[in-house]
Specification:
Helix content is 31%, strand content 24%. With 204 residues, the chain is of the alpha+beta class. A hairpin with a 4-residue loop joins strand 7 and strand 8. Helix 1 packs across helix 5 and helix 4 packs across helix 5. It binds inosinic acid (IMP).
Length: 204
């Protein structure tokens, strides 16, 4: 299968590496908007992960002939009614360190027992195809909020996101282990299947 290039609307080199690893068997090359020479400036004012992913993907698609993709993700803590959710990156301010954000969330769960500390990372991925068709997928990984930061891998809320099956936080998993079970890894594999269907349709 060869479908050429996918432009991914992110400035995060780690995401591009992760996406290329998952897409490797498709023959498609994934490049960032920046590497494709595209500049997008959007306000992520959607009400859902899917809307925000679509806002970013549409902005890049408006100036590209390739398949364009974007993701949006967040952490939902049940005890906090789903906070920080779609506001995860902006929680306590975009520039506030995750040491502070993580400590704050842990303190808001003070005295809350294990079984009520349930949470999930959610990821939606949107694609805009060259014919204008739009696709979205969503996936999640279930876990619990820990009592302190643990682990040095990953980013963001990983040090406080404990995955019971591994008895580790996602910051204690290797990048490969995390990709196999993470919201983003799962969503990417779902999107890959959707794109394969598209390829079959366009080849008929
Ligand atoms: P965006 O999807 O890049 O707009 O941002 C989502 C935000 O959710 C990130 O900035 C993190 O705060 C949080 N988040 C999403 N996925 C993860 C993850 O895999 N680990 C840790 N934090 C995450």
């Amino acid at each position: 299968m060869h479908m050429g290039r996918i432009i991914f609307a992110t400035g995060n080199a780690g995401k591009i590496r992760e996406i290329n690893a998952i897409m490797a068997d498709t023959g498609m090359e994934v490049v960032s908007v920046k590497d494709a020479g595209i500049q997008i400036d959007v306000e992520e004012n959607g009400k859902t992960y899917e809307e925000n992913a679509l806002i970013k993907a549409r902005a890049a698609a408006a100036v590209s002939k390739d398949i364009v993709m974007a993701d949006d993700s967040g952490l939902e803590i049940d005890y906090l009614n789903g906070e920080p959710g779609i506001y995860s990156a902006r929680y306590l301010g975009e520039d506030t360190s995750y040491r502070i954000k993580n400590a704050d969330l842990v303190s808001r769960l003070e005295g809350v027992p294990d079984e009520k500390r349930t949470a999930r990372f959610v990821c939606a991925i949107a694609a805009v195809l060259p014919d204008g068709r739009e696709l979205t997928v969503r996936a999640a990984i279930e876990g619990r909020i820990g009592y302190e930061e643990k682990g040095a891998n990953g980013f963001g809320y990983d040090p406080i996101f404990y995955v019971p099956e591994f008895q580790k936080t996602t910051a204690e998993l290797t990048e490969t282990e995390k990709n196999e079970v993470s919201h983003r890894g799962k969503a990417l594999r779902l999107m890959k299947e959707e794109l394969k269907k598209y390829e079959n349709i366009t080849c008929q």
